[in-house]
Amino acid sequence: MEIIKINGLNRESKVIIGELLENVGNYLPKTQVFIITDEKVKAYHGDKFPRFPTYAVEPGEESKSLEVVGELYYWLLEMGADRSSFILGIGGAVVSDLTGFVASTFMRGVDFGFIPTSLLAQIDASVGGKNGLNISGYKNIVGTFNQPRFVICDINLLATLPQKEYLNGFAEIVKHTLIADVKMFEFIEENIEALKIYNPTLLEQLVTHSAKIKAAIVQADEFEKGERKKLNLGHTWGHAVEKETGMSHGKSVSIGLEFAARFSVKKGLLEKRDYMRLMNILRELNLPICIKVSPKRIFEALIKDKKKDGDSIDFILMSGIGDVIVERMTLDKVQEFAEHG
Question: Fewer C-beta neighbours within 10 Å, C or N terminus of the chain?
Fold first, then answer.
């Protein structure tokens, strides 16, 4: 078991890798605990949940809405929740976002923690204190920065994931290596076939690695004023793809990584050879690198991105595998590259 600490402005957050869902009671208060999950996770793992009131939402991005948040507020009130309560989110990325947002705003904030059940949630969504909701399909337009008390990453929970959803999480793992660790990128290249099959030993290594990279960046810049922007690699274009196509987050980020890498080659920052290495990894992981949707449509969604600042945006480019830069550019330049290359 490994514990990674993030010292946030308001509290210390612990990412506990290798702990079990069954032991979560050791980290919870004895009373006034409320669980948020989704129906699929409850069906798979509900028998292991601690015995507290539980609300199960519909699985999927549609639940990351103000309407569902309102339903959760009313449920908490009806169940007698107060400012001493603790909210535990058990589920994937959507449940993590919902739980973090509800806990951060209910009665001006109560304590909360996560047990992420998907690879995507364990290595990204549950770590770092971002909690967001979608508005009309636009990603994370409403949200908070607030660190959970703990994140328990039980690797055993990943064994029940369908392979498609399992591989979905690898887009974020690859992203983290592109940002900060060429050696881990090479490790993935060399072990690609083994990684495509559930292997708890390898998975714990990868989850720990990604959590350490993200924790270090968040520790340096909790509220995304500078360094943390690097974690948006692949996400500016990827979120717009997700909005327009309804594709999963991991697949959309994969397309976003291709766009950012190709843009980086165009600007002379990334060698074509390294671009091809990235494409090979994404293909081997059954992640898409192109879509049959016009770049104009994707760009129209991008201009509503929360990271936009006037007529400019901070775009994350690759200056080599394991190194990225944040470049402020006008939206016109992004549009020109998107539509004309």
Answer: C
Q: Which domain holds residue 204?
A: 163-340
Pick from 129, 160, 191: which residue ends a domain?
Answer: 160
- Contacts of 36-39 with C-beta under 8 Å, sequence gap 24+, read 36/72, 36/87, 36/88, 36/89, 36/90, 36/91, 36/95, 36/98, 36/99, 36/102, 37/89, 37/90, 37/91, 37/95, 38/63, 38/91, 38/92, 38/94, 38/95
- Domain termination residue (choose one: 130, 160, 190): 160
CATH number of residue 227's parent domain: 1.20.1090.10
Are residues 102 and 152 both part of a single domain? yes
Report yes or no: 253 and 172 within 8 Å, Cβ to Cβ.
yes
Q: Are 102 and 218 members of one domain?
A: no
CA 21 vs. chain centroid, Å, equals 20
pTM of the model: 0.93
**pLDDT 10s per residue in the chain (341 long)?**
999 999 988 889 999 999 999 999 999 999 999 999 999 999 999 999 999 999 999 999 999 999 999 999 999 999 999 999 999 999 999 999 999 999 999 999 999 999 999 999 999 989 999 999 999 888 889 999 999 999 999 999 999 999 888 999 999 999 999 999 999 999 999 999 999 989 999 999 999 999 999 999 999 999 999 999 999 999 999 999 999 999 999 999 999 999 999 999 999 999 999 999 999 999 999 999 999 999 999 999 999 887 788 899 999 999 999 999 999 999 999 999 999 87
